[in-house]
Specification:
CATH architecture: 3-Layer(aba) Sandwich
Mean pLDDT: 94
Low-confidence stretches: none
Bound molecules: S-adenosylmethionine
Helix content: 40-55%
Number of strands: 7
Strand order of the largest sheet: 3-2-1-4-5-7-6
Radius of gyration: 18 Å
Number of helices: 8
Strand content: 15-25%
CATH superfamily: Vaccinia Virus protein VP39
Structural class: alpha/beta
């Protein structure tokens, strides 16, 4: 480990804005491209674009893989299968015999995800795809049985999904909510549309929940993460 570079002297306020506008954006792009996305994941991402689905960004995918690997996850649940982009990243980080339970209301999306899992050589025993609405399916999943739960479905339902996720997680398990910055609107208090308000409220609830240890990672569209104490 080398020494840190000297902190630049504090620039004049106006030029500091310019530094944020240029250097920060460049750093974010660099962060997103830091881990190379496997070809099978890129193919699933292309399919998501064709179907008009917003998949997790490559940086968010790499963070999900890291969390799954750090937890040695054997049981992961996901709301919002999409075409399998997040699922493929999670599966790569999980234990070899780990099972991803993934829920989506759209049959066409799950069909595309199954094709992506097969193309990536994922054994069929490692995925359990459940077709249905998240809030109908989640209450049927076991208490304290999951190492990680990803919420990436309908933003209006994210808070109720997160409540279910907290019930489903084991102690030490991790809740992840994708798009927690909701198109960069959450940080701007002037934005009051329904989805933005729902995500902002969820962020507050997770932060103030004494059962959880939270961190909001500014990767992709924002990954709200929290360990269940
Ligand atoms: C943002 S996409 C998920 C992308 C996926 N996680 C990925 O990175 O590849 C959201 C998905 O949630 C699904 N969805 C929306 N509302 C839902 C609900 N109430 N229950 C289950 N799935 C839902 C949509 O059909 C869509 O496939």
């Amino acid at each position: 480990m080398g020494s840190r570079p000297a902190r630049p002297s504090r620039p004049h306020a106006r030029s500091e804005e310019a530094v944020i506008a240029t250097d920060k954006v460049q750093s974010w792009v660099y962060t997103e491209e830091y881990c190379t996305e496997p070809e099978t994941v890129r193919d699933a991402r292309d399919r998501a674009e064709e179907l008009g689905i917003s998949a997790v960004s490559p940086g968010a995918g790499a963070a999900l893989r890291l969390l799954a690997a750090a937890l040695r996850a054997r049981a992961v649940a996901e709301v919002g299968t999409g075409t399998g982009v997040s699922g493929l990243w999670l599966l790569e980080g999980m234990a070899d015999d780990g099972v991803l339970t993934t829920i989506d209301v759209e049959v066409e999306h799950q069909r595309a995800a199954k094709e992506a899992f097969a193309a990536a050589g994922v054994r069929s025993t490692r995925t359990r795809t459940i077709s249905g609405r998240a809030l109908d399916v989640l209450p049927r999943l076991a208490d304290g049985a999951y190492d990680l739960v990803l919420v990436d479905g309908d933003p209006a339902e994210a808070a109720d999904c997160a409540d279910q996720a907290i019930r489903m997680l084991r102690t030490g398990g991790v809740l992840v909510v994708n798009e927690a910055l909701w198109h960069d609107r959450v940080a701007d208090p002037a934005r009051r549309d329904e989805d933005t308000v729902a995500m902002r409220e969820l962020g507050r609830r997770v932060r103030d929940d004494e059962r959880l240890l939270p961190a909001l990672l500014p990767v992709g569209g924002g990954l709200l993460t929290a360990v269940k104490r």
